[in-house]
């Protein structure tokens, strides 16, 4: 990936927070929104695959790289206002989001008519109590309060049933130790403009709040009028597939597609296990 492929820009959200984004390509606008433990960089390969057909915008959600911090009065409405500012500045009408980023688009599409079509990859939602995020989120928050970043990350991944198999095979103390070594190594070798997992870890608190609050507002999603494609991977946790099925029955204009053999990381960069070219092919088919 070459930095010359994109330019950087900023908008100001309603509460005065600056939201930065990358821009690349030419054509109809698509805003690509990352999930937890990610940043704009996480979907650069997807954007580069799409840039021959679309102008792709990659925001950094709050707390990351080009964007300002979350504030003490956080609510999902702030994420909606951030996306409203991006859509207004870019004139984009297509949206793609993964995991908690997909949940942001669900919150936004209830009121933002600028969203004409959206593709959502495995929104991390509990539909009618299909999954309980609270125990894992509580353990994560407890560990973060004690300054145990590695243990907090392990709690978050286990709570969301994500991450490599090693999480569930090895003793937890060993997984935490290995995670801590990974964090230290990444920090030592990080470039000046790279956001590390250690820096991303505290932000999961806000993803947890977003997922919890939106899970309590499922009926409000019936108001969404945007055409929606719900994507999933056959190798992903069952609760994410349950969310897809639930959303299909709730959203007025939704269709579904499952990728055989892919998991929750499918849309991300290949160095994180993604298959961005496969996902991009479906985005092209839908965004016409």
TrEMBL record:
SUPFAM superfamilies named among the record's database cross-references: alpha/beta-Hydrolases
Gene3D superfamilies given in the database record: alpha/beta hydrolase (3.40.50.1820)
InterPro entries registered for this protein in UniProt: AB_hydrolase_1, AB_hydrolase_fold
Pfam hit, one: Abhydrolase_6
AB hydrolase-1 domain residues: 30-265
Protein name: AB hydrolase-1 domain-containing protein
């Amino acid at each position: 990936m070459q930095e010359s492929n994109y330019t950087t820009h900023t908008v100001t959200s309603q509460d005065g927070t600056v939201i930065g984004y990358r821009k690349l390509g030419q054509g109809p606008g698509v805003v690509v929104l990352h999930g937890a433990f990610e940043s704009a960089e996480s979907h650069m390969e997807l954007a580069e695959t799409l840039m021959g057909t679309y102008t792709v915008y990659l925001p950094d959600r709050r707390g990351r790289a080009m964007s300002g911090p979350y504030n003490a009065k956080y609510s999902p409405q702030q994420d909606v206002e951030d996306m409203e500012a991006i859509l207004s500045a870019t004139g984009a009408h297509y949206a793609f989001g993964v995991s908690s980023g997909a949940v942001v688009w669900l919150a936004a599409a209830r009121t933002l008519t600028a969203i004409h079509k959206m593709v959502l990859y495995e929104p991390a939602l509990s539909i009618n109590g299909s999954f309980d995020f609270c125990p894992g989120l509580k353990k994560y928050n407890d560990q973060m309060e004690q300054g145990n970043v590695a243990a907090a990350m392990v709690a978050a991944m286990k709570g969301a049933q994500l991450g490599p198999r090693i999480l569930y095979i090895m003793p937890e103390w060993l997984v935490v130790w290995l995670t801590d070594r990974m964090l230290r190594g990444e920090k030592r070798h990080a470039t000046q403009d790279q956001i590390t997992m250690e820096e991303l870890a505290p932000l999961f608190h806000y993803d947890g709040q977003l997922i919890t609050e939106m899970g309590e507002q499922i009926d409000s999603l019936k108001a969404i009028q945007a055409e929606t494609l719900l994507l999933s991977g056959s190798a992903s946790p069952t609760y994410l597939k349950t969310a897809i099925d639930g959303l299909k029955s709730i959203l007025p204009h939704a269709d579904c597609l499952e990728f055989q053999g892919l998991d929750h990381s499918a849309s991300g960069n290949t160095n994180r296990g993604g298959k961005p070219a496969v996902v991009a092919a479906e985005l092209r088919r839908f965004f016409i």
